[in-house]
Amino acid sequence: MSKKKPRRPAAATPAAATPASPCPCGRDAAYRDCCGACHEGRAAAPTAERLMRSRYSAFAVGDAGYLLRTWHPSTRPGTLECVAGQRWTGLEILATTGGTAFHTEGTVAFRAHYTLQGRTGSQDENSRFVRENGQWLYVDEAPPA
């Protein structure tokens, strides 16, 4: 009997993000100057943590294309299904290992908060990232230690 892996949440119902809004990732910057620049291809995430933040923001604004582009081809799904009515409401970075400009691998432990059908919840994950050809990519959830 194979263990069924829980479905990864996909792009949420888009939040009202404008270029001048605070970035959903929680950094002290406008969306256009922070994760919006990554989403639009004007900038690349310089670290694994920044990629994690930009991917969270992509979930928050419903940018499934960015999520797929920043997912390693070896683990990338063919499509992402939106969870109707889900809103991503906050991101906490809990820990990082590696993932700087001096590394080719890194992990980012995070807690992402959301609301769905009037209830609040959170998703905890320790994500693995690799840097290939100068670009950070999400691989998968790191196995428990």
Give an overview of the whole structure.
With 145 residues, the protein is an alpha+beta fold. 17% of the residues lie in helices and 31% in strands. The longest helix is centred in the middle third of the chain and has 14 residues, at 48-61.
In short:
The chain is α+β, with helices and mostly antiparallel strands and about 140 residues long. The protein has helices at about 35-40, 50-60, 65-70, and strands at about 85-100, 105-115, 120-130, 135-140. It has a four-stranded antiparallel beta sheet with strand order 1-2-3-4, with helices on one face.
Read across the widest sheet, the strand sequence of neighbours is: 1-2-3-4
Which ranges are low-confidence, i.e. pLDDT below 50, for 5 or more consecutive residues?
A: 1-14
Distance between the termini: 24 Å
What level of helicity do the residues show? 10-25%
Strand content: 25-35%
Structural class comes to alpha+beta
On the 0 to 100 scale, the average pLDDT is 88
Coarse shape: globular
Task: Compute the number of strand runs.
Answer: 4
Radius of gyration: 15 Å
Tally of helical runs: 3
Query: Main sheet?
Result: 4 strands, antiparallel
SSE string = HHHEEEE
